[in-house]
Write a structure and sequence with these properties.
The protein has twelve helices and 14 strands. By secondary structure, the protein is an alpha/beta fold. Bound molecules: zinc ion (2 copies).
């Protein structure tokens, strides 16, 4: 009689606000191995992956270890993560390591759900985990309202793209929906944002194709170097702007006009980000303020506009993103109601992570925008208005 058993065990600990430590063990009658990984919660990427053998069969087995490290930078929310791990770690290294890493990904997703639930519970103490999970069909978002420790290091540098941008309308963008200057203020590129699948070149090419007037690269906690953006502008003959989506202790903030570097570990405190933005005379927009908060229904959580207005982050922002391509219409609608009640300016951006999402939403400004200073002034004027650009143009 043939007996076979395989045990897989994953344990997860929270190292700090934004980092999970993951330990996985696979043990069967023949093989025994372990992996140690760290995962950044805000973008769900592997920061490090290491492993060791406890029992193995051939001298070939230990050679698999270096391939494990190739999973560093992989995003757990990537829809092809299983295939990627099988291909990179499994085929080149060892399929047992791939198996346990795939298990680790599942567990990390679960752990992050619990973290999100706990954050939301601060406002809604009666919400059970079951209600939370059943009401949340979207991929993990991490917008916690808890108090966080360890102040980050923010550096302000003076660097802007000074040269005037080419006018997109000079190069075939005539059939725009109607007047003004339309920018997608919120897009993500790979590899700067590991969850994105689109390169900056493809993103800009698509923006140009659908006749946007400009596009803003707003990667997670990353500031594009001026020289690279200037090269992109030259290469594509298209206006490219820089923003930065910063993960703070009170959710995601889109900041403009700020060159900042954050030391690894610890979330940025919103007060400190605000201070830095003010020092740089920049602009700060709260991105998707109610992402994941309304999937259970407004009534169920008893979240009213009045209550929502009291959320502390509204005190620190200049504007509210009320059209975001990654949240439900209900969540956008609610953000819109809250912004009207607060009297804060509003913006729109696709939050594109794929080519087909570029321009889903955008912001129209009344006047032409030629450089980063123009963009800052346009934002500060409060005259931007969000629109469903892609839909209005009825394109596929
Ligand atoms: Zn975000
Ligand atoms: Zn985003």
């Amino acid at each position: 009689m043939l007996n076979f058993s395989r045990n897989k065990l994953v344990s997860i600990a929270r190292k700090d606000e934004d980092t999970l430590l993951v330990h996985g063990i696979l043990d069967d009658v023949i093989y025994g191995l372990e992996v140690d990984a760290t995962v950044r919660i805000s973008d769900m990427t592997f920061l490090s992956v290491n492993g060791k053998w406890n029992r193995y069969t051939t001298p070939e087995c230990p050679k698999a270890l270096p391939f494990l490290r190739e999973a560093t930078g992989f995003c757990i929310n990537d829809k092809n993560i299983t295939q990627k791990l099988q291909k990179t770690v499994g085929r080149k290294g060892c399929r047992h390591f791939a198996t346990i890493l795939i298990e680790c990904c599942r567990s990390v997703k679960e752990a992050v759900r619990i973290i999100q639930w706990e954050a939301i519970k601060a406002d809604h103490p009666n919400l059970t985990f079951e209600e939370f999970v059943n009401g949340e069909p979207r991929e993990a978002s991490y917008d916690s309202a808890e108090e966080k420790a360890s102040p980050p290091h923010i550096e302000v540098r003076e660097k802007t793209v000074r040269k005037d941008m080419p006018d997109a309308r000079d190069s075939g963008g005539q059939d725009k929906t109607s007047g003004g200057f339309v920018i997608d203020l919120h897009t993500h590129t790979f590899p700067a944002s590991p969850c994105s699948s689109v390169s900056e070149d493809d993103l800009i090419t698509e923006a140009k194709r659908i006749s946007l007037d400009g596009i803003c690269l707003a990667d997670h906690n990353y500031v594009w170097p001026v020289s690279r953006v200037e090269d992109l502008i030259q290469k594509h003959g298209f206006p490219v702007f820089r923003g930065n989506e910063v993960t703070t202790d009170q959710g995601h903030m889109l900041v403009f006009g700020l060159e900042k570097e954050i030391r690894s570990g610890g979330l940025v405190k919103i007060e400190e980000l605000r201070e830095a933005v003010e020092e740089a005379d920049g602009f700060m927009i709260v991105a998707h303020p109610f992402r994941g908060f309304l999937t259970f229904g407004v009534g169920q959580l008893g979240l009213t506009v009045e209550k929502a207005m009291e959320r502390p982050f509204f005190k620190y922002v200049d504007a509210i993103e009320v059209m975001n391509g990654k949240v439900t219409e209900k969540e956008n609608g609610f953000a819109s109601e809250v912004s009207a009640a607060l009297g804060l300016p509003v913006t729109g951006g696709s939050d594109a992570h794929e080519v087909s999402e570029v321009g889903l939403y955008a912001t129209r400004f009344p006047d032409s925008i030629k450089n980063e200073n123009d963009l800052l002034n346009a934002l500060k004027s409060g005259k931007g208005s969000p629109l469903a650009f892609r839909k209005e143009k009825t394109m596929v």
